[in-house]
Amino acid sequence: MSLHSESTDHWRVASPALRGAENAVPGCAYGGAVSSQRLRVNPIRDHVSESYDELELDFSPSIFSSLEKHLPMNMLNATRGDKLKYLRTILLDYLPPAARIRDQKYREYTQMILSNYKPLNKELYAMNPTAFFVPAFLKAISDNNEDSFRSIVSEPFPGIFTFEMLQPHFCELLLSEVESFERWAFKTKFQIIRPNTMNKYGTVLDDFGLQTMLAKLRENFISPLSKVFFAELGGSTLDAHHGFIVEYGKDRDIDLGFHVDDADITLNVCLGKEFCGGELFFRGMRCDKHINTESIAEEIFDYSHVPGQAVLHHGRHRHGARATTWGHRVNLVLWCRSSAFRELQRYKSDFSSWCNVCTRQKKERQRKTIDITSLDLFKWKGEATA
Ligand SMILES: O=C(O)CCC(=O)C(=O)O
Ligand SMILES: [Fe+2]
């Protein structure tokens, strides 16, 4: 089975900017330009960034909000205008022209939607925990400790966590909002950009106004869990997301091929409706080098979707979705990303802390070393007693 690496153009938007942050060492030039502006490598996590959403900018407003946490101390309390100017100078140094054009086109696309599409269910656009989540999930998140999380989460397979999450009414509202958005696009002949390279159907929720609500979902409800369950795998430092809907069944996508997500942590919640099939099949965690290697029996795990129930897994946990053979299945997917984790991985060649093949190879090397050492010891003892 050969594997596809899922991606989306939009998803990559924030990455060059954060790469800029990492390269911002005094005296260091990138792309031929030297900026006197500097960013700190480690973000100030508890800094509350401004919103740049309503401004007409040549970079995505969310990039400015993310980068604000990397500002040097003397800039943190500057006016929004000054921070904007400072960050823009850095972005212009680091972002290649093609990415800038892509970003500009994407902004025009979302601007077109935001100024023409009228939301059907306004209550979806602001985070309302008691209306969105089931009480047990809410309580566990507000208790905010490993025991409270473990009391609502099952781990049916190592690295795959499932839990009851969404209220049925929230699922219905979101489904009807997506239908309304698609109806609007159909009526106005507006070409929707699909969530990623593997789906012909589905919608990016961030593109029609749900970005802020989903950022809250990521920060306040998913990060607490991923900090505990995926601490070493980017879960402690999530700072971006790509939120979308996938749709399967008659006149929709049928299944989803074997792939890894362009995400560090993936949240996948079934919204309904009624369907048969559509199981997720998981086949082990892999780094780039081992992405197409065979799976072994211990890596095989299948999961059946249940409306309202969430699955949380690492993006590099290879998976796919079987055919939805009857009915209509719709899932909410939130690809969460940690720029800090991604940068760290760029300088590594051993991924034995998470790639199953790297782990097996490391164990094999250790076993061989032990065998050789024992043999040497055995020989030495033999010689000593001869
Ligand atoms: O269909 C599903 O539930 C899986 C979706 C998925 O893996 C993805 O969109 O990355
Ligand atoms: Fe996926």
TrEMBL record:
Give the originating organism.
Arachis hypogaea (Peanut)
Q: Which cofactor does it need?
A: L-ascorbate
Keywords recorded for this protein, A-Z: Dioxygenase, Iron, Metal-binding, Oxidoreductase, Vitamin C
Matching InterPro entries: Oxoglu/Fe-dep_dioxygenase_dom, Pro_4_hyd_alph
Query: Cross-referenced Pfam families, in alphabetical order?
Result: OGFOD2-like
Name it: Fe2OG dioxygenase domain-containing protein
GO molecular function, a single term: iron ion binding
Q: Which residues form the Fe2OG dioxygenase domain?
A: 239-338
